[in-house]
Amino acid sequence: MASASASPSVLAARIPSATVLFSPSNSPGIPPYPAPKACRLVAARAMPWPHVLTVAGSDSGAGAGIQADIKTCAALGAYCSSVITAVTAQNTVGGVHLVPEEFVEEQLKSILSDMSVDVVKTGMLPSAGVVRVLCESLRKFPVKALVVDPVMVSTSGDTLSGPSTLAKYRDELFSMADIVTPNVKEASKLLGCVSLQTVSDMRNAAESIYKFGPKHVLVKGGDMPGSSDAIDVFFDGKEFIELRGQRIQTRNTHGTGCTLASCIAAELAKGATMLHAVQAAKKFLESALYHSKDLVIGNGLQGPFDHLFRLKSPLYNMGSLHTFNPDDLFLYAVTDSGMNKKWGRSIKDAVKAAIEGGATIVQLREKDAETREFLEAAKLPVVAIGGINATNASSVMELAVPNLKGVAVVSALFDRECVAAETRNLRAGRRSQGGADDPELRAFLVEADAAKAELTALRDELSRLRAAHEAASKAVAVAGGGERAALVRLLGSARRLRARLASMGRRAPAPAAHAAAGLRAQVRGLTADVQALRRQVSAARRDDAARWYLAVAGDAPTDEQLDRLLLAADDSSSDSALQQATLLLSAAGEEQREVAEVERGLVELQELFVDMAALVDAQGEGIDDIERHVAAAAGDVGAAGAELAEARRMQGAARRRRLCLVAGGVAAALVLIAVAVVVALVLARRGGGGQQQQAGNILQVAGGLARSVKLAVE
């Protein structure tokens, strides 16, 4: 047995039946601190529920804010209530609606006065007034711990808090906090925008922030440029601890800060120490990012991740909750080839000793043994053949649990050299010690090793295609479909291998059927990886096509234009596809030019309308002048009417005088006309040219006088 030096009988006596032998470093579902010693509980006893209150903003996309806090606490077995300080319309910070301070105070009072809150976790506190209200409420209603996530700069780099809020954090809130968890950008802002480029800078920042009054400081370096690891610096006032973890390459990082702080709060509410809570939170976040690295939700640069991934694992459901049921406890035992040789026992003897000691699951970790020896020694179903690690342990357990009758047997870790050596051993016909040489089993093992080799080749091809995709994503390439064609071929190969393994499982000997099932599970995982990469390639290809179209045509393409462009690339070779794409873009250019002509016509029409409007304005001013003149004329008409009435009164008296004068004038005129006619006749008879002309003139004067007399009479 691993890490044991006693005989089998003594060993069995030393293994308590209520002990869980999982290493936190290898099992993502187990907390990294010891489980409570008292495991037997009375079913009817009411157990306290760890309670976390989150005071933060609401994220409509559910990736950050109170939504991330609630999901994190639920995944860790803690109850989470909430006080909303702002309602955001993400993706942009511009869409933020602040909740009034008075209503924030009402929310705090309603929860803290009624419910037993263990830990308060803060997120987005958008104003100095909200920070003040929170501090006053916590003085009235103290809690066990306060976790402050100073959300001043979002993961995407947006500024969320002003200078007055920043000062309120430093002067009042930090002194009440048990831990403050700024990222590198927030730590820099807290300290006056100092540069933080190295781990040493992070240490100095943690020490400086500690002087503001919190009991612990965690400076998060996940977004520090140039670092291959995700390094966080924890400081308790005495000692610096660097927490290093794997940097997960994924776009799904929205809400990482909220999740980490909420996980710390949940673990503190469950009774963990601060350092253990921080370690558990970092491990939880790393596992969540890993299980969500290929998740696709939304089209933004940052996506959310799956907070509830652990609920899908039987390991978590059976081993990580603090409220234990004795019937759910199990013992996981691992054999060791060196110890077996030392005590002179076989694999069978080791498994028997483990069963007698109370083990419920036995892992055979015999690196020096052959595959045939495992299968021939197994009297119980073999769950898997291949590497068993933290990533695939849950799927192995899912295969094991339905077949459990007290014990499940799994194989050792195999690398490529082990597989190659085992294949050579099988071909050479080596027999296992004490085992029967079953031809059917031998044939199965040979076929299984060939399937492993093919699976390894497919994985290598997938890695090559993934690297090629990452390299190609740095350039714009629309027409080339080599990657997609290779992925389709790889997916077809994986499916054929899966069908082949299914056939092997149906006709394999009983002990080997489960080995085939384990290989099928690995092929299913490979198929899922291929499909995920295929989706990434398609999405990147579509984005590249849209950018190319925009660069050439000057406008974003419609979905129909984009589909036509991609269809031309799919149905043609690279050269002809480029020609097709060029034709499509040329057509698009013609359409753009026609649109430009229409736009110019519209501009000219608009100018004409403007001129007409100016003319109408001028005419309006003229009409106003006419109206003024008409009004003045109306006044003149009124005055003229009065004068006319006066004239009528005078007319009666003057009419008689005028008649007399006219009569006299007419008589005189008639006399003059008669005289003029006589004189003209006399001159005309004399016959002289000059005299005739004088006679004509006299007659003209007489005619004019006659017309004047006529007008006067009328």
From TrEMBL:
Keywords: Coiled coil, Membrane, Multifunctional enzyme, Protein transport, Transmembrane, Transmembrane helix, Transport. It holds the Pfam family TMP-TENI. Residues 585-647 form the T-SNARE coiled-coil homology domain. The keyword Transmembrane helix applies. SUPFAM superfamilies: Ribokinase-like (SSF53613), t-snare proteins (SSF47661), Thiamin phosphate synthase (SSF51391). Residues 441-475, 516-543 form a coiled coil. Its cofactor is Mg(2+). It comes from the Eukaryota. PROSITE patterns: T_SNARE. GO terms for biological process: protein transport; thiamine biosynthetic process; vesicle-mediated transport. One of its GO terms (cellular component) is membrane. PANTHER family: HYDROXYMETHYLPYRIMIDINE_PHOSPHOMETHYLPYRIMIDINE KINASE THI20-RELATED, PHOSPHOMETHYLPYRIMIDINE KINASE. This is t-SNARE coiled-coil homology domain-containing protein. It comes from Eleusine coracana subsp. coracana. The gene is ga03784.
